[in-house]
Amino acid sequence: MTTYDGSSRTGVGSLPAPPFWICVLLGLALIVAGFLVLGDVMLVTVISTIFIGWVAIIAGAFEIVHAFWTKGWGGFVWQILLGILYIAFGVVLIGQPVAGALILTYVLGLVLAVSGFVRILIGVSRWQDPGWVMLLSGVFGIVAGFIILTGFPTTGLWVLGFLLGVDLISHGIGWLAYAWQPTARSA
C-alpha cells in the first residue's frame, strides 16, 4: 500500500511551490489590478468584449482548419458552420463592443438564472449529502441572474468589468492566504 505525505510543499506534479515572496507579490499585484479594474468598469467591459471577440475569431479559424484536418471524421459541414459562427460572433463583438457587451451580459444573466435553478433542483434532491450548499449556491445564481436581467441594458455596461475586478481581488486574496499558510513559510 502506498502512502502519501501531505506535508510536502509541491505544486502541480513534482514542481516546487513558489516562494513566499512570489505568492505575496502576486497576491498584491492581483488585488491592485482588481481595484484598478473597478475604477473604470465600463472601459474594462469594452476591452473585455473586444478581447473575447478576438478569441472567438481565432477559435473559429481553428475550428475551420480542424474541419479540413479531420475531414474523414464526419461532421465536416457542421464544423465549418460552427467556425463561421464563431468568426461572425467575434466580428460583431469587435465591431460593436458596446452592443457586444450587452449581448454577453444578457447571456450571462440567463445562464446564471438557469444554472441557479438547476442547482436548486440538485440541492433539493441531494439534501442529505449536504445539498443545502448546492441549494444556497443556486439561490445566489438566480439572484445574480435576475439582478443582471432586471437592470438590463444598463447592467450590460458594467457587469463584465465589475465581475473581472472582483475576480482579480479574490484571486489576489487567495494567493495571500496561500502565502501565509504555515507550510508555505517553510518553503
Automatic annotation (TrEMBL):
Q: Which residues form a coiled coil?
A: none
Q: Which organism is it from?
A: Bradyrhizobium jicamae
Keywords in alphabetical order, please: Membrane, Transmembrane, Transmembrane helix
- Ranges that cross the membrane: 20-38, 44-69, 76-95, 101-121, 133-152, 158-180
The protein, known as? HdeD protein
A cellular component term from Gene Ontology for this protein is: plasma membrane
Q: Could you name the domain of life of the organism this protein comes from?
A: Bacteria
